[in-house]
Amino acid sequence: MPGTVLLLAASPLGRGRLVDAAGVLPVLAAVAPAVLSGTDTANVVELADPLEPQAVLTRLRAAAAAPGPLTVYVTGQLHLDRRQRRPHLALARTTPATVRYTALPWDWIREELRLRSAADTALLVDLHADAETWRRLAEHPLDSGRTTAVYGRIAPPARGRGPAEPAYMKAVATLLRSGHRPPLARLHEQALARLTEQGAGRDLVLAGPGGPVQAPAHLPVMPRPYTPGAPVAAPPAAQGDPHAAISGAVRAGRHAEADSLAARQEEAAVRAFGPASGEALHWAEVRADLAMFAGDAARSCRAWLAVAQVRLAAGQAPDAPAVEAAVDRAHHQWSRVKDAARARELGPALAELRLRVPGRRRGALENVQRHLRQLQAG
């Protein structure tokens, strides 16, 4: 089965640029697609200094939904938004004052990859942080999800003048140009060794599923062990990685089986941790995505509405990323409901949520109200 590769390199234009992110793309583009992916064949999508976070999200979502292994290479810089102080990947138009609206929230990357299995999903990153973000990462490690294999580094603010080099990603690309992709843990170690030769030593190193290892790059770092089924710690009877089984069922077109598997995980999480727990909400979100994959936009919309309502009832803020994401996805799925009666049924609940959760796209509430009026008039 062919693989999918997403090459994302982004940094602001002008004085805010910390790293010459796009400079690594010619080196990566010189690597054969099959080597970038580690599969016999692969489709490669390249995003160089994109302007709009929604456009990046669309490409990322399509890549995450593609069958077969997925490898995402991300080069760029991290900043915190001023309201929630959450890490964002800066894009071409990003400035310190506009991070929330012009940068890509790191949560979006985590959310789009969460349904996939670590066995066929890899994220390689070379990120640079400004001083504020660097201090926060020391206490709040970058969260890339529990089901994605992550390798790379986060570099501190450069001491010299001008943008820094994406040295880790260039080392990865140079190693891959040999025509062979070793296991990612080994590729990661080889790239770090080249950074050590260049004198890097303060970087935060990411190695293994889900989270960073707080260690400088010149120390040996091994991937964290991955415990199959870790996202749901409840039922000891759950064997293997449920995400892998669910993904396999979706790819084979067995949508009812995939939803049944996820439903069992959700029920176990609710019993063990409660309906508002992170574990239960994770599986509720998985089932919302499964409905989307099955082509049932109404069921997906209803599931996302329920997720948003549970999060708000549990005290999460209306502008919390997980709440905004749930309402945005409910809105998106509602716009795809073809049955007018079902759309009319779901519209008022979505409009009520949009009053509380306007999201980042201006005019979202007005869009719901206008479409609902059209449905009711018809």
Number of domains: 2
CATH architecture level-2 label of the largest domain: 3-Layer(aba) Sandwich
| SS element count, helices | 15
Q: What form results from the Cα inertia axes?
A: globular
CATH secondary-structure class of the largest domain: Alpha Beta
Low-confidence stretches: 211-217, 219-237
The total beta strand count reads 9
**N-C termini distance:** 45 Å
Strand content: 5-15%
CATH topology of the largest domain: Rossmann fold
Structural class: alpha/beta
Q: Could you state the order of secondary-structure elements as H and E?
A: EHHEHEEHEHEHEHHEEHHHHHHH
What does this structure look like?
The protein is an alpha/beta fold. It folds into two domains: 3-213, Rossmann fold; 242-377, Alpha Horseshoe (Serine Threonine Protein Phosphatase 5, Tetratricopeptide repeat). It has 15 helices and nine strands. It has helices at 25-29, 33-37, 53-65, 99-102, 106-113, 131-139, 167-176, 184-197, 242-251, 255-273, 278-293, 297-313, 321-334, 340-356, 364-377, and strands spanning 3-9, 42-48, 70-80, 87-89, 104-105, 121-129, 149-155, 204-209, 212-213. Strands 1, 2, 3, 4, 5, 6, 7, 8 and 9 form a nine-stranded mixed sheet that branches. Helix 3 runs parallel beside helix 5 (106-113) and helix 13 packs antiparallel against helix 14. The model is unreliable at 211-217 and 219-237 (pLDDT under 50).
Defining traits:
Rossmann fold, 378 residues, Serine Threonine Protein Phosphatase 5, Tetratricopeptide repeat, alpha/beta, globular
